[in-house]
């Protein structure tokens, strides 16, 4: 899952991004509304965690732009105000969910994951395919009943492949969904991660390389 965090309190923004990355999400961070619009114009995000009171361009206007573009991106709006009318107004302009500050980080994670599931065809909360069971909420993976310990990026790549339900996923798509914008697009990080993932999952291999196209399970 790829997430954009838009928050002008830099310490909070960076802390949120760090926590989401620990949950195997690819996260980009910006600190004002103008920068958010720039990122949205060039990257596809599953979820935008959007502070409402932003400098340069207000969070409401960022949200309206997403709605205007007709993008499937889901918006979790943050605000320091817990007023009901404020929450209602935020939802009416197009936000999908609303979380007042201060918030419990576990709740933020749960809401981001719930919104991420709504950007695609609904799938069961626990994904199962080819003897692999992946639980995104518990961050657990099992192969034929054996627990497999994965690094965050390995988990993210496996989740993308599992969610594709047998369709081929290109290296570019994996790079977009599992890494942030600071990753060199010409790196071999996808190939190396898939190789490590195959080794950890064991034999027989379930991740198939489709020459010239990508990977599938």
UniProtKB/TrEMBL annotation:
KW Transcription regulation (keyword) present: yes
GO-annotated biological processes: regulation of DNA-templated transcription
Matches recorded under Pfam families: Response_reg (PF00072), Trans_reg_C (PF00486)
Gene3D superfamilies in the record: 3.40.50.2300, 6.10.250.690, Winged helix-like DNA-binding domain superfamily/Winged helix DNA-binding domain
Response regulatory domain residues: 2-116
DNA-binding region: 124-217
Domain OmpR/PhoB-type span(s) in chain numbering: 124-217
Residues bearing the modification 4-aspartylphosphate: 51
Keyword tRNA-binding assigned: no
GO cellular component: cytosol; protein-DNA complex
Keywords tagged on the record: DNA-binding, Phosphoprotein, Transcription, Transcription regulation, Two-component regulatory system
GO-annotated molecular function: phosphorelay response regulator activity; transcription cis-regulatory region binding
Domain of life, per lineage: Bacteria
Biological role: Member of the two-component regulatory system CutS/CutR, involved in the regulation of copper metabolism. CutR suppresses a defective melC1 gene, encoding a putative copper-transfer gene, probably by altering copper metabolism.
Protein name: Transcriptional regulatory protein CutR
Species of the source: Streptomyces sparsogenes DSM 40356
